[in-house]
Design a protein that fits this description.
Length: about 120
């Protein structure tokens, strides 16, 4: 009888750990400052509170480009000429999970401190 309970206990622990991990990853960010970077280099640092109306930023990578839309305190990639369009399908940045365009090496993510700079890159 004890051997039957062990898989249920292990399954419950894994389920609880998954729920807690998901809650941590999908939590709302603490700031409204967003960093747009490519290959670890910061291209733009944007405070979303400073944009009252919709504005776009064109980010080029060689002959390819992404169009970043800032609107109503949110940011998204509205156009990309990459083949898979995953970055466009990700929608608006609402959590700590970043928007990534792998073909163009572009990352859009929240940053904790509007005055902080990038302190390191891991390859």
């Amino acid at each position: 009888m004890k051997n039957i309970k062990i898989p249920y206990i292990i399954g419950a622990v894994i389920l609880i750990a998954g729920i807690i991990s998901s809650a941590v990853v999908m939590r709302q960010p603490d700031s409204n400052t967003v960093v747009i970077s490519r290959d670890g280099d910061i291209l733009y640092k944007i405070n979303l509170n400073n944009y009252d109306k919709a504005e776009t930023i064109e980010v080029s990578y060689g002959d390819e480009k992404n169009t970043v839309l800032i609107e109503n305190g949110t940011i998204c990639i509205s156009y990309a000429d990459c083949p898979d369009q995953t970055c466009v399908k990700m929608g608006r940045l609402r959590s700590s999970a970043p928007i990534v365009c792998l073909p163009h090496h572009l990352v859009i993510q929240y940053t904790n401190d509007s005055n902080a700079s990038l302190d390191g890159t891991v390859y």
